[in-house]
Amino acid sequence: MNLKSLANLLGMSKTTVSRALNGYPEVAFRTRERVLAAAKAAGYQANPMARSLAVGRTNVFGIIYPLLPSDLGDPMFLDVVGGMSERLEKSQMNLIIAPVSPQNEQPSYQQIVRGRRVDGLVVGRTLGQDERISYLIKEGFPFVAHGRTMMKGPYAWFDYDHAAGVSLAIECLLSKGHQRVALVSAPLELNFARERKESFVMAMGAAGLAVDPRYLIGDTLDRRSGYQAMQQLLACSPRPSAVIVDNHLSGVGAVRALLDAGIEIGKEISVIVWGSMADSLAGSNVTTIDQPHPRKAGARMVEMLQSLVNGTPAHELQEMWQPILLPGGTVGPCIN
Q1: Same domain for 108 and 203?
Q2: Is residue 271 within 8 Å of residue 286, measured between CB atoms?
Q3: How many domains does the chain have?
């Protein structure tokens, strides 16, 4: 049954029936209830393309993402995306992920926005100074940033408290007597890496501990670079007694490097990794700074984006969740 047939059945105009089905407030309550009941009884389903044209929406949210080879095997990334998809399905909406090369990322944003191919975007891996976000703000296009930036303008974002997570790790290591602590970081143009490094330096300073520049290794965001970073730290004299790795992708490589070197993790060197290592096959019960409930986080970003599309001001849609420290077998007392 199509809209015209349903309208004829009810003895109403197509416009009235369409407005009732789409929840327009000017339709009387009793009329809306009668239309919905008749539509259900007749098995009527709206044509999604026609409905999108009528309300000016695609019912699709999008992510433009310069995918790394490790992303598709990253359970945290897949959990977040899975949470987004599940939440959208409840609203009869869809999620598209547009993989792009890094050099084509900004033109892809312009193409998506100009063509109005989606109703809103989730912007991942935010940068300290992020031209994607500047562009979307300028165009007035709905988006939620998965992570903050250094920019001051009002925009919707969802993030975890990086300073709190680093503080948890430092407190844990200090309580075990560690003073020579190293940090393995993702590229510092990524805002989360910048914030975590700044928090690390501040926390160490607050404890009266100097940071050895040799113990600050950057530009690691996959297993290979994490492995190489740990090898570099092992070559230091003296080498650190503890290492914090600021992302779980590098954490896998860092732990593997210690195992390959015959290091007894948790005794000779302690390790804390930011991000879940449960499915990493790293070979150790790794102590982690965990970002809990990634599927709920994905769902929450979708809910925020839906609110933004429906008129909630961006400055009211800024949410920060707290990380937690999950004890494992890779942290022990400092013995040297």
Answers
A1: no
A2: yes
A3: 3
